[in-house]
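Question (not urgent): is this output format expected?
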Amino acid sequence: MAAAERDLRYRAVAIYPEAVQGVCEWLVSATRGKDWREVLTGSAKYMADSFGYEAEDAFVSGLT
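Got this back:
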């Protein structure tokens, strides 16, 4: 980043923690009470198989 700032005069619009916080807040708000795959259809196409919900449910059930 230092080279981009020096050589290209790049200036970040936000620092990473602030940007991530805003995105996370939006994701939680946009999907609250909904199936995320219906809200984020583009992401669901590529990410739906990335999460082992059944395995997680089975693990959590075994804890109680």
